Amino acid sequence: MNWLDYNTQVVAGATALLGAAAGLAGCLLLLRRRALMGDALGHATLPGIAGAYLVSVALGGTGKEPWALLAGATVGALIGVVSVLAIRRGARVSDETAMAIVLGSFFGVGTALLTVIQATPGGHQAGLSSFILGHAASMVASDLRAASIVAVICVVLVVSLTKELRLLCFDTSFASSLGRPVRSLDALVLIIVTAVVVAGLQAVGLILILALLVLPATAARLCTDRFTTMLPLAAIMGSVSGVGGTLVSSFAPRLPTGPCIVLVAALLFVLALIFAPRRGIIARTLASRTFASRTLAPRAPEPHS
Amino acid sequence: MNVWTWAVDGWIIAIGALGALACAIPGTFLVVRRTSMLADAISHAVLPGIAVAFLLTGTRDPFFMFLGAATAGLIVTLASSSLARFARIDSGAALGIVFTTMFALGLILIVQVADRVDLDPSCVLYGAVELAPLDSTLIAAIEVPRAVLVLGGVTLLNALVALLFWKELKLMAFDPALAKTLGCRPQLMESIILGMAAATCVAAFESVGSILVVAMMIIPAAAARLFSDRLCGVIVGAMIIGIIAAVLGHWIATSLAPALVAGGRDASSAGSIAATLGALLVLCIIIAPRRGIVVRLAHRWLLTLRCAREDALGLLWRLDEDDRSVDVATLRALLVGGAEIAPLLARVALWSLVRDGRIDRGDGRATLTERGRAEGASLVRSHRLWEIYLMQRLALAKDHVHPTAMVLEHITDAALRERLAKAGGASAASSQPLADPHGRSVPPKTDG
Amino acid sequence: MTGHSPATHHTQHRAVGCEHSEKSPLSIHALTVAYHRKPVLWDIDLDVPANSIVGVIGPNGAGKSTLLKACLGLIPISSGKVSVFGKPYAQQRALVGYVPQRESVDWDFPVTALEVVMMGTFGQLGLFHRAGKRERAKACEALDGVGLADEANSQIGQLSGGQQQRVFLARALAQSAQLYLMDEPFASVDAATEQSIIAVLRRMRSEGRTVIVVHHDLETAREFFDWVILLNTRVIAAGATAQTLTHERLRETYGGRLTLLDEAAQRMQKAQLG
């Protein structure tokens, strides 16, 4: 029983903050109907990380400076976003196809660079591949700081721009008829998501970060019909997943933290799917049963407005 | 390292190429049906399938691994579509939910069995195409890698399915609504496409890795789409692009990468092939005929040049009509000032008109040759006929017709011109020339 | 019909250079719009009379929605000028309200009817300002104006199609604009909703506002509109309803397509795309 030790506290704190930020960012992605952008972004960080390592080594560094690697990841993700938009236009393909293209080719570049790096002296210990599947146990106080900065920025931006973001996600053409900077707001959403993805690399890795973006947001959507409720709910669910996953894996050290966090989030989603007040399976079964009994009853149904 | 040994490299390329062939058919359908991320989802979701298969059977027998992976592929497809439909969740989000959850589950399961067997999750991601030739069986006295057999089998199976249901799949791919009214059972066709995609993903991920599967399914098809509007053309194009990438990618991994990085070793072939595919797509976006950037730019420039040449002839013809004569420099100034043609373009246009004998610049004056006069007259005729038409039919104001006619005159050929003339009231019987809204007479027909 | 509307040109329309082009709520001069380089609106000239309900009528693909979007700057225009009360649209945003097509938004979105209506007040709010009591009161009033006060807190997906359309209308009311551009507000609503929508539009007119409505039902057009614009890529006719909605004009709008111009448009697209 060592769940109160300092290390666990750090990891739990960081993943809770990260979960909250991912919940908020995920709501925006989900309502903008771009959920899978998180996946393309995540995979696109890998060549950035590998490139940052190579640059750092070439400049005489160790190649392990966390800020350099995260900066590389950010650059990779941003290039990925721009590529998705450019390929969609240039090759005239759907959003989804452009994401799959970016995801596959960027990850390919990353993999190729990674194998090259691992063959160089010192490359094997660089631990770059831990970004793919995450390695929460190695998180230290500086990671906690990074996660809290991202979370605070995320919360401040989303809270102060709630009204604009809701307008953007609901009715883009109306927003631009009001003269709103629709393109900048859209870019802001993607930048927030990029920040969350990069901050989450250490904890859950670049593949599972998608889960942290999508699961709490979708679960929150099932539970409420209000945008202003959905946002904090998703943030709370994200935090609970973070803390829950960390605790579970600290009780059972054989369970890696990242996947545990995702499974806790998935559990919350399943609970929402079953018990959500209006859209849950139980509520809908009951509703359809009452509806059936009402329509099958000899008495004419009440007029539905 | 710089020299390929065919017993190894040949087989690696063969596996990559066969992977491309197998992926081309379902990949094309995924791209045209706009469900490309399904490839990504399936290839990630196989992880728990393999882990469970191992937990249940206790062996790494490829058959059970394949069975587990196939089941997982089926689950992710079915679960995400029913989640999207039942819980009314955006289909992308549903896909993301299902496959990431399954992937997380797979990671946890794999850790549990890690001390009994070496199931490396990153092996699933990158694949081990370099090691695939080692796992071979003897067929007709040749050591054939198992991966070649599997991928070859899947390719044949996909081709067979595509041939059997070609008409229905084609209809389904481009117009599901019509397919339904024609009784094509779109649900069944959709399942066939998904089944093909799942089987191919599962067969290919083991040898080439799940990310390369995504790249191999989607990128060649998207690139080939730039070259062809026909389903058959897209599939064949995707196959060719995939094979090129397999050869080129492996060459980059084994020859280029070690040479570039000092003391470096071979890069991952799967990763290099995926990266090459991405680069090929960019190349296709640039050079594709009709839709490529180069062709579009060149086309636009040629069009602008043609318009500038026509404007120059028209201008000279009108000056002639007023009995004015100008030198070349003045003509150029008039083109730049009046017709808003870029100075360089005006220069090139005039130079080319002089060169191919439409404008004569003897003794410093610019005069139209016979050929140039005929073409100038045609252009002015188009212009004035359009002005009449726009006035009469569109009830446009007199001061509005000129700019529109300035655009339309350049896309008017002889046939359209004569139809305009007829619509404008010219009859074969009357020799009276038509007059445009500004009182100028329309020059007579000069061609045909 | 009000005193200074250009009723004189019931079949023709000009860039009227005299005084009422300054007062005209919407004045369009030589507007051409192209999608993928194919012109969908050709050289449009219009001066919409103030204080009236104007219908934009034409077949599918005639460019009706495009006309509204071009006026609002939602799509780039190839050439021409649009002015709202004599000034460019960008300076007059606060005076213009927009009702998009109902299909253009996701009705499953997690907002309530009141929240949607409150979006109409955002035009006057800065980027970081939150909507306060005043905005809420205004939205409630607008919602009440379309008879949906009881549904204020319902999620929009739970409303019927007609109610959703009225929510959009209430959002426009909350904008308190002088000129409204509405894209198919009568599309697939029942007769009762139709009546309540037209009642709202008439109330807007009586308050001195101008409403431009994209419409496709010829049956009701005569009853609803003071003024109509018959559109099919170009303006076939524009003017007072009685004189403009003639059999001949309608045939020209719906039947006789401008074959030569159409052909030219197609050639332009082909020439420039290669």
Quick one: CATH class of chain A?
Mainly Alpha
Strands ordered across the widest β-sheet of chain C: 6-7-8-3-9-10
Could you give the distance between the termini of chain A?
Answer: 59 Å
Helix percentage range of chain A: over 70%
CATH class of chain C equals: Alpha Beta
Strand tally of chain A = 0
Structural class of chain A: mainly alpha
**What would the average pLDDT of chain C be, to the nearest integer?**
84
Radius of gyration over C-alpha positions of chain A, nearest whole angstrom: 22 Å
If classified by CATH, what would the architecture of chain C be?
A: 3-Layer(aba) Sandwich
Supply Rg of chain C.
Answer: 19 Å
Summing up helix and strand content along with how strands pair, one would put the structural category of chain C as alpha/beta
- Domain module tally of chain C: 1
How would you sum up this structure, described in words?
The complex is a heterotrimer of chains A (305), B (448) and C (274). With 305 residues, chain A is mainly α. Chain A has helices spanning 6-31, 37-58, 66-90, 95-119, 130-133, 141-160, 162-170, 172-177, 182-223, 227-251, 257-275, 281-296. The radius of gyration of chain A is 22 Å and the shape is globular. Chain B has 448 residues and is mainly alpha-helical. Chain B folds into two domains: 6-244, Orthogonal Bundle (ABC transporter involved in vitamin B12 uptake, BtuC), CATH 1.10.3470; 297-423, Winged helix-like DNA-binding domain superfamily/Winged helix DNA-binding domain (Arc Repressor Mutant, subunit A). Chain B has 18 helices and five strands. Chain C is of the alpha/beta class and 274 residues long. Chain C is 35% helix and 23% strand. Chain C has ten helices and ten strands. In chain C, helix 5 (161-174) runs parallel beside helix 6. The longest helix of chain C has 16 residues, at 191-206. The relative contact order of chain C is 0.18. Mean pLDDT of chain C is 84; it is low at 1-22. Chains in contact: A-B, A-C, B-C. The interface between A and C is medium-sized, with 28 and 30 residues.
